[in-house]
Specification:
Layout (H helix, E strand, L loop, with lengths): L1 H7 L1 H31 L3 H12 L1 H4 L1 H8 L4 H25 L18 H32 L5 H30 L3 H18 L21 H14 L1 H21 L2 H7 L5 H29 L1 H21 L3 H29 L5 H14 L1 H15 L5 H26 L2 H22 L1
Helix pairs in contact: 2-7, 2-8, 2-9, 3-7, 3-17, 5-7, 5-16, 6-7, 6-9, 7-16, 8-13, 8-15, 10-16, 11-16, 11-17, 11-18, 13-14, 13-15, 14-15, 14-18, 15-19, 17-18
């Protein structure tokens, strides 16, 4: 273990611990925000709008965030964004505290009638702004990683980071959030705010300057405009056919996942009949699969091939979503989530490490943002489609069946993506792109030095 720590470095450990702390807060929020939304309204479309607002910044702010990332100190930007997220979450906590006496008990949310408009608007606006800060912070975090971890250790570093995110997000945060919800609706939000401030402090302790190093310009050559910088990032990704295909496929994957994910809390309450505590316990399925997947992903990639691992993610997701749609027992649902996340985490480790290895450092922020524009920008569309599917299905079938329908649609999309992805994302193409990218970056580094 000590040998690995020396290789990954103290800066990585600070980033690792800050991620763990903030994700404990995020895990509590994963329970508190959906439960708060269903305590404010039972309207599927209004709940879907909240989920869409959280992901809308990935559609409208991702591209500008990429240009900003390549122009600023990435560490300082992360500190600023975590501080902003802490302040916004504190505002939500105070707003919930002010109306706590009018909110139902967490296990009585199914009995509410109507919508608390004022608190709903606070939740909606805060969710939108938190999403903007998350876009900027995450883009900076991914572009910072290659600056503090050597290339040959990126998969290990990303795998460990993904695992601790999952442990904090699903093993520690949700049970703690469930218990705090039973104390008072506002308490998880106050703790979540504190976690963001602590994360900001830790990232601030990472030494060094982390601005992108741009190739030298000829004397008198003007500095490119924001528009020119953005065009450069778009062109680079478009001409890299493998990453372009991967971005489109991931966008459709995320759209499908949000289609069912935006309705998950209603599905859990009205079909699986869970409480806040059993909701948290069910989340252990996510954690178990993600932790195992994060650690074994590098091994799976070497033994099975990176392309085979990505195909397993797509195929298993189709099977898991169809099965969840048929399930009525939350322990079975938790087991299915564990299987899905085991393969899903390998997708993240493999593809993020690939991008960090082959995208030139001075373009990493912009290309990452264009990639995530397609990959994450489809999420708000999927969230809204989830609400639409349930609303339409309820006109000709039961409420329970309409909530199951989104999982079947989700599974069908993944089945199609498996057929496409198996042909486009082969191990041979991925490894050839990695080798070419590493060589190109090394040549640029040699020239600049």
């Amino acid at each position: 273990m000590s040998k690995e720590r020396v290789r990954l470095g103290s800066s990585y450990r600070k980033l690792y611990v800050s991620t763990a702390i903030s994700n404990v807060g995020d895990g509590m929020a994963a329970i508190a925000y959906p439960w708060l939304a269903t305590a404010i309204t039972r309207n599927p479309l209004l709940i879907a709008i909240v989920a869409a607002a959280q992901r809308l910044p990935w559609l409208v702010f991702t591209l500008p965030a990429g240009v900003i990332t390549d122009r600023v100190d990435r560490r300082r930007a992360m500190v600023l964004m975590d501080t902003l997220r802490g302040m916004l979450t504190a505002i939500v906590a105070i707003s919930v505290l002010s109306e706590q006496g009018t909110l139902p008990a967490p296990d009585e949310v199914k009995d509410i009638v109507g919508t608390r408009i004022g608190l709903y608007l606070v939740l909606l606006l805060a969710t939108l702004l938190l999403g903007c800060a998350e876009v900027m912070r995450d883009n900076c975090g991914q572009t910072l990683m290659p600056s503090i971890v050597e290339h040959q250790h990126l998969e290990r570093a990303n795998g460990r980071m993904w695992s601790i995110e999952s442990v904090a997000n699903t093993f520690i945060g949700p049970p703690l959030g469930s218990l705090l919800l039973l104390v008072a609706f506002s308490v998880p939000f106050f703790i979540d705010a504190a976690s963001f401030f602590a994360a900001a402090a830790l990232v601030a302790l990472i030494p060094g300057t982390f601005r992108a190093q741009h190739p030298e310009r000829a004397a008198g050559e003007p500095t490119p405009s924001w528009r020119d910088d953005l065009k450069e990032g778009v062109r680079w990704l478009y001409h890299h056919k493998l990453l372009w295909s991967m971005a489109i496929i991931l966008g459709l994957m995320n759209m499908a996942s949000m289609l069912s994910g935006s309705m998950f809390v209603l599905f859990a309450q009205d079909v699986l009949n869970i409480t806040p505590l059993t909701f948290a316990l069910m989340g252990f399925g996510f954690a178990i699969g993600a932790v195992i997947g994060g650690y074994v992903a590098p091994w799976m990639s070497k033994k099975l091939g990176s392309g085979t691992c990505l195909a397993l993610t797509l195929g298993s997701s189709a099977v898991v979503n169809f099965s969840v749609g048929l399930s009525s027992w939350w322990p079975l649902t938790a087991l299915l989530f564990a299987i899905g996340m085991l393969f899903g985490s390998s997708w993240n480790v493999i593809t993020v490490s690939l991008r960090q290895s082959i995208i030139p450092p001075h373009l990493l922020g912009r290309v990452n943002s264009v990639y995530r524009f397609f990959a994450w920008g489809m999420m708000p569309i999927g969230a809204m489609l989830g609400g639409v599917v349930v609303t339409i299905a309820r006109t000709f079938t039961s409420h329970e069946t309409s909530l199951r329908a989104v999982w079947f649609v989700d599974g069908g999309i993944y089945a199609i993506l498996f057929l496409v992805g198996r042909r486009l994302l082969t191990t041979e193409r991925l490894e050839a792109a990695r080798a070419a990218g590493v060589s190109a970056i090394a040549a640029v580094d040699t020239t600049m030095s």
